[in-house]
Amino acid sequence: MSKTPDHMPVGTMSGTPQVLLAHHLKQLKLPTVLREYDKVARECAQAGIDHPRYLLRLIELELIDRERRTIERRIRAARFPAVKSFDTFDFTAIPSLNKMLVLELARSEYILRRENIIALGNSGTGKTHVALALGLAACQKGFTVAFTTAAALVSQLMEARDERRLLKLQRDLAAVKLLIVDELGYVPLSSTGAELLFEVFSQRYERGSTIVTSNLPFEDWTQVLGSERLTGALLDRLTHHVSILTMNGDSYRLKQSAGRRRAAARAEQNQASHAMADPDTGEIPTP
Ligand code: ADP
Ligand code: MG
Questions:
Q1: SS3 57
Q2: Residue 3 burial by CB count (10 A; 0-12/13-18/19+): exposed, middle or buried?
Q3: Is 52 exposed, middle or buried (0-12, 13-18, 19+ CB in 10 A)?
């Protein structure tokens, strides 16, 4: 026999539909509707907006939020070492880089055409920054992205091979719409490593886009990959449909720190001249 309480707990009567609604909205995965429906209802009531428009407004909010959440998930899945965009990239610092081409590439249409990008240049010229910004742009345009370095990718492949899960990794690597392989050239690869890397590029050929950055000009890639035959075959696939970004110039980092050193030297000089200055007027006495 159920015992009826003599009075309903406070809030239960008015709370029940809200509780059920919250439960259902969670089940339907509509967190924004859940968060906003009450506030938007009050706004709509005040503005005399009818029910279909109220519902439309709520659903639109959910869609906008869902898109944002999907982009955030794609960015996390890409495993960028840092999130960088073109907003913080100073094109004037690297005149050898074709800005128009880069901005065109930032539209990510090359990914639909399954074309590749190779950024070549000495250290510190912004290759990784540009690759990250292109990766971010691709995530925002709805493409799946994976970021790695050549060395990390090769050791991942070797490990997968040893653990007999190479096929799965290769399938995963072939499936992303944009694979970014940073820093090809800093570490020479073993012959197995080079073969495995070649297979990745080969499997992606005309199926997905790849961005490669390297500090070495093409003629030196044999040093990294070990074999001329393999380098030829790899470059053949990679450069069939490709945009090449030439990024030769002064290291941005060095320039920045040189700038800081100059600023520090100036500050020191100022201090020194202040030390000589008249303590009351701050003026440097003229002889
Ligand atoms: P690389 O990969 O060519 O060695 P990075 O992209 O790592 O160079 O650049 C080194 C640092 O300098 C990074 O912090 C990067 O964000 C910054 N940087 C390089 N070039 C630029 C630039 N043109 N504008 C703004 N920041 C830059
Ligand atoms: Mg780099």
A1: helix
A2: exposed
A3: exposed
Best mutation site among 91, 252, 254, 260 for ligand 1 pocket (most ligand atoms within 8 Å of CB): 252
Q: From the CB of 131, is ligand 1 less than 6 Å away?
A: no
Secondary element (H or E) of residue 53: helix 51-78
Q: Which two tokens stand for residue 24?
A: 């259902």
pLDDT 10s digits, 230-257: 999 999 999 999 999 999 988 987 777 7
DSSP string, 234-258: HHHHHTSSEEEEE--SS-HHHHHHH
Q: Is the CB of 86 under 6 A from ligand 1?
A: no
Say which CATH class 86-246 falls into.
alpha beta
Amino acid occupying residue 227:
S
The answer to whether the CB of 124 is under 6 A from ligand 1 is yes
**pLDDT tens digits, one per residue of 31-67:** 999 999 999 999 999 999 999 999 999 999 999 999 9
Q: What is the DSSP letter of 212?
A: E
The whole-number pLDDT of residue 250 equals 87
161 SS3 class: helix
Count CB-CB contacts under 10 A for residue 202: 15
Dihedral sign, CA of 205, 210, 212, 218? positive
185 in contact with ligand 1, CB cutoff 6 A: no
CB 221 within 8 A of CB 186: no
Q: Where exactly are the structural domains of the chain?
A: 26-76, 86-246
> How many angstroms separate the alpha carbon of residue 182 from the centre of ligand 2?
7
Q: How far does CA 158 lie from the centroid of its chain? A: 25
Is the Cβ–Cβ distance between 199 and 179 less than 8 Å?
no
